[in-house]
Amino acid sequence: MFVVDTLLHRLKRGCETMAYPDGPAPALPDRHGGALRVESARCAAGCDACIGVCPTEAITRVSGQSVALDLGRCVFCAACVTECPTGAITQTGDHRMAARRRQDLVLGAPNHAEVRLAGELDATLRRLFGRSLRLRQVSAGGCNACEADTNVLGTIGWDLGRFGIQFVASPRHADGLLITGPVSRNMQLALRKTWDAVPEPKIVIAVGACAVSGGLFADHPEVHPGAEAVLPVDLHIPGCPPHPLTILDGLLRLLGRLDERRLPPVAGRSERANGSLPDAV
Amino acid sequence: MSGATLLALLPNATSLPWRDIPAWPASEFVQVTAAALARGARLCSWFAVPEESGDAVQLVAVLAFDADNTLAVGRSTPVRGSYPALTVLHPQAHLFEREVWETHGLTPEGHPWLKPVRASAGEAPANAPFFTVEGGEIHEVAVGPVHAGIIEPGHFRFQCAGEEVIHLEIALGYQHRGIERALAGGPHRRTLRQVETIAGDTTVAHATAYASVLEALGSGEAPLRGQWLRAIGLELERLANHTGDLGALAGDVAFIPTAAACGKLRGDFLNVTAALCGNRFGRGLVRPFAEGPDVSGALVQQVLGNLTRALADVEQAIAWLWDSASVRARFENVGTVHRAQAEEIGMVGPAARACGLVRDVRYDHPAGWHRFAQAPVAVWPGGDVFARARVRSLEIQRSGDFLREQLVAAPESGPADDSPASTGDTLAVALVEGWRGEVCHVAVTDAAGRFRRYKITDPSFHNWSGLALALRGNAISDFPICNKSFSLSYCGFDL
Fold this sequence. Notes:
The complex is a heterodimer.
Chain A: H1 2-13, E1 36-38, H2 49-53, E2 59-60, E3 68-70, H3 79-83, E4 89-91, E5 106-107, H4 123-129, E6 133-139, H5 145-151, E7 165-167, E8 176-180, H6 188-197, E9 203-207, H7 209-213, E10 235-237, H8 244-254
Parallel strand pairs in A: 6-7, 6-8, 8-9, 9-10
Antiparallel strand pairs in A: 1-4, 2-3, 3-5
Chain B: E1 8-10, E2 14-17, E3 23-24, H1 26-38, E4 42-50, E5 57-65, E6 70-76, E7 82-84, H2 94-104, E8 107-109, E9 138-143, E10 155-161, E11 164-171, H3 179-183, H4 191-196, H5 203-217, H6 224-252, H7 256-277, H8 297-323, H9 325-331, H10 339-344, H11 349-353, H12 361-364, H13 385-407, E12 426-434, E13 437-445, E14 451-457, H14 459-471, H15 479-486, H16 491-494
C-alpha cells in the first residue's frame, strides 16, 4: 500500500523543479525589496539621515559627494530607504546582486547607482568549471541562515545538480570554496587548511554580508572583516542572508550560464540603465 | 516548591531591582542554589557580572520552578580567585562554570573537567586535551571542525571500541563572534540585528527574548498585535526547522520520499515568514515596544492559504516516514538519553520532552501572547532518535493547529509605547521557547540603564551534553541520525 501511495503522490505532484533560468524566475516575497539603488543626483547635500540609522555602517559620505552605500555590508533592513527624505535610496525588487569586484557593490557614484553585476570567469576557468563545478562549503562564523539558504539550492525545487554544480564533502574533490560567516579567528586555521587542500585552479565565493565584509561583526576582534581578509575572493554575494535565487544567480553568472537576452525581464527592473549591465572583469 | 527557596522570585519577562536580589558569599550562594535545584528547579543561566573596578565578579543564578510557573534569581557578593563548584552537586552547571572560569578567571574548585568552552588554546579551540579511554582495543576518531555537507563547524572526538562509541567529547568555539562582549554598554544601534543572528535559524525566538528584556527594563510592553505577531513568527520558525530536520533525518536513513518533500516544504514555511516581514528567517519581524510589520487581513488570508497547503503536504510526507518499518527500525533504540540523565544535565526543548520531561516555556512560563493562547505540550517517552523525531512531528501538528486558530484571532492595532528608557541597576529575564528549546536572555543594567552584563543562553548550551550522552554504547555510524535528531546550534553556543 505504502509504496503505491508514495508513487501516486509523486505522480500527482509532477516535476516540482522550477523553470528558471529557462522560464521566469520565482517571485521574491512582496516585502523583500531586493537590491538597493542610490541616485546621487537626488542625494541632498549635508543630509546624513541614512548614515545615522544604518546598523552596519554600510553608508558613508565623503564631504562634498553623495553618499556611498556598500551593499556588501548591507543587511537589507531598509531603514535608510525609509529615512531618506529625498528618495535617493530605493529598493529595486531585483534579486540580482552578485559582483566580481568588491568595489562594484559600493553604490552612489554618479554612474554607479546599482550593482555592477558579476561577469563570467575567464575562458580557461569557464572551460574547466562551466559545466561541472564542485564546491566545498565552509562556515566560518556564519549564523546558519546563509548556510540554510545555500543548502536549499540542493532541494527538488531548485535542483542545483542540473547545472552541474554540487557541494562535496572533501576539499580534495572541490574546485573551490563557498564561504559563509565573517571568518571567525577560531576558524581561520581550519579554513586555511581546507583552502590548501583544494587543488589548483580554485575559486572562492563569499556568501552573505558577513563573508563579504564582516557584516554586523566587521569590527569585532574575534572575527576577520570577511573572507577577503584571508583569501582571494572571486564572487561576492550580498544579503543577510541572500535569497536562494540571489545565490543561484551569482553562481550561474560566474559560470556564464545565464543568457541575459533569453531571460525574461525581472520585475521592477525595466528602468535599469544599459551602462550598469554586467561588467567584464 | 519555590516557596521554600531563599532566592528572589519573579515571573518570566519581568525585572527586579538589582539591590532586591538576595546576595550571599559565593560558597553559601552555591549551597542556596544547590538546595533550590534539589527541590526541582532548573538552572536556566549562571554567569558572572564584573565589578566596575577590580577583578572581582558577582555570580548570578537564574532558575526556573516549572511547576510553580515562576523564575528565581540570586547572586553572590563580589568574589575573586575561586569558590566551591556547583557542578559537583549539580552537573547541569558544568558548562556555565567553565564559561565563567574562561571569561573571568574565577575557578570553580572541584570542577571535574575544567577546560575552555570557546576560547582558543593555541590556534584553534579543540587544542585543549581531550578525555581519553585507555586500552588495547580502543581507538580514537576525530571529526571536524569542517564537516561533510553544508553545516557549521565543531569538533567531535570519539573514543571507540570497534564500532561502539564509549565516550564522545564535543569541542566547540569555532563560531565565536564576541556577541556578548559587544553587548556590554549597549544597547547599540546594531544590537537588535546582532541578536537576530545569535542563531540565524532561531531569529524570532532570540529577537523576542531581547525585545522582552528591553520591555521589562523599560516597564513597557509591545502592543498586543506585536505580541501576537511574535507568537505567529515563533511557530513558523518551529514548523520550518522541524520539517527540515525530519526531512534530513529521513535522508540520513536513505528514505528519499520524505527527505525530498520536506526539503521543499521547509522553504514553503520560510516563505510564509517572508510574506510577513520580507525575510525568510524573520529578520525585522520583532521590534521592541512596537507592533512590527503591518499584517493586514488580506495578508493573513494569503498566509493562511499557503500555510494550510504546506501543512497538508507535511502531514502526508511525515505519514510516509512513520508508515515505513525500515525507518522505525533505524530510529528505535538508537541514541537513547534516559530521563534521569536529561534531568541531571538540564536538557530543554523537544530533546527533553522526548525523554518524557514536561517542560515547555510557552506552557510553564507564559509571557506575551502565550498568556492568552497555548499549544499542548508534546511529550514522548523513550529518549531515543524515534522519540525526538516523534516529538518534532507532534509539534508540527500542534504548531499548525495553533497558527490556524491564532492567525484569524488577531487583536486590534493599538498605540505603541514610545520606547521608554531602561531602568538603571535592574535585572531583567526573558525565556522564550524556541524550536530547539529554552532561549534565555538576562540583562543587568548599570546606573545609567546601559547593559552592564547581557547573558544569552541558547538551548544548545544545555543540550550538546545530551548528544554526547546519546552516543554512548551506540555504533559510531549512527552519529549522523543522533546529531540530526538534536540538530543543535553551533553559533548559538559559541556566541
